[in-house]
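The following block was generated as part of the benchmark described in Methods. Ligand: adenosine-5'-diphosphate.
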Amino acid sequence: MNSYILTLDQGTTSSRSLLVDQKSIIISKSQKEFKQIFPNPSWVEHDPIEIWETQLETIKDVIKKSKITLNEIYGIGITNQRETTIAFDANNGKPICNAIVWQCRRTSEYCNELKPKYRKLIKEKTGLEIDAYFSASKMKWIIDNIPEAKELIKTKRLRFGTIDAWLIWNLTGGKSFFTDPSNASRTMLFNIKELKYDEDLLKIFEIEEWMLPKVIPSNGDFGHTSSEVLGAEIPIKAVLGDQQAALFGQCCFKEGDMKVTYGTGGFLLINIGSEFKLDDNFLTTVAWGLKDKTVYAYEGATFISGAIIQWLRDGLGIIKDSSEVEKIAISLDSNEGVYMVPALVGLGAPNWDQDARGTILGITRGTTKAHFIRAAVESMAYQIADLITPVKNNLPKDCFLKADGGASKNNFLLQFQADLLNVPITRSKESEATALGVAYLAGLGKDGFWKDEEDIRKNWHPDELFLPKKNREQEYAKWKEAVKRSLGWN
Ligand code: ADP
């Protein structure tokens, strides 16, 4: 049998390719950053060609570095930044404008206008809150503002893809235009109960189904790479949005299993099983839609998590490197009443307030930069507590939280989080949960690398366990007060 799975991990700031062997070991990686384009203060764009080219370069590089041949690759798994939208011409694959990135706020006002009339309907059909974050309003913006889009509609040549669909199109030389339910569920056009694009939603956003990629199972047949593109025909076997891939990679296969990723943003996902459910605190999303079953997840997305540490470094200049903050945070016995609400771009779950702004409270003459740093790290944990606390009673008694992402290296953060929630936290030994997640799915099956989920679970090893040690109820109550003061500022 062929020996490796090639994972493509197309993220917000870089494209990466990784080779995973049958023991779940990542034998080689390649990474290339690409440009972040900010045409306006709240607009974020990427160049679709650069996304594709950096991805392709990393594929070639990882194969070259590891000295394997293309026919040793069993299959490809794709995981990607979600919601980001690319519009292109079906005749030649040429993008008609830059990709509108998930972080881009250009359609905030339009989304606010939709809320009174459609909030309930959209939540019931898609599990999502109306927000500029999701793809639908970005697609509408392109149709309304890019003249070429209107031209291409006349001859049914306009195509809209999330990043997975764009990569698949390019990898297959324009043969496949497919996406999977985990990515489709982030467009705000996909009915996640019926698992198809929804006519009412397509009408609201004035989008036609022929513009969109076909949705097939996350472990479906996405086609083969074109030999002209890669020099071999390799099957694309699995696709998952990045957060859902991390849930899979952390082996959260059972109802109640949950993971938090502390990256630029903070993302909590809880496996809620095969039944579609709604909760006021969370988005409901498709975790994975497999050939034989669909699994849903509750998701809480906080926009600024590790990014607040970047702001301490690049905005305030009070640290040189994110690795410094753990030591400085524990140099204080407590936060001494200083709270920071990192609402730099508004607040995501559970407040969903686009007009909230960053707030620092409790400053005295004794306040030093250490207090700012501690308050920033604590804020990453409080935001996750805001998501879990309301549903904690519904979780299994023996539940624990699996942590990953760049900031999960910070032991103070994980200990503080365990204290706040009164729930144990484990950090996985393998920090690449996202890339591994989709590799697992690509290699799952009776003829694959792993025969079932149990077989995959054997690969998951905790690196460190953080048990709750200290009651933090008082601090948490104060944080809630601080959040109230940050709302509606803009
Ligand atoms: P992404 O995948 O979203 O680009 P990563 O998972 O690589 O992000 O995590 C990087 C983020 O984590 C950065 O925002 C950085 O500021 C933050 N970070 C990295 N190390 C630490 C640390 N030790 N403590 C707190 N935050 C950290």
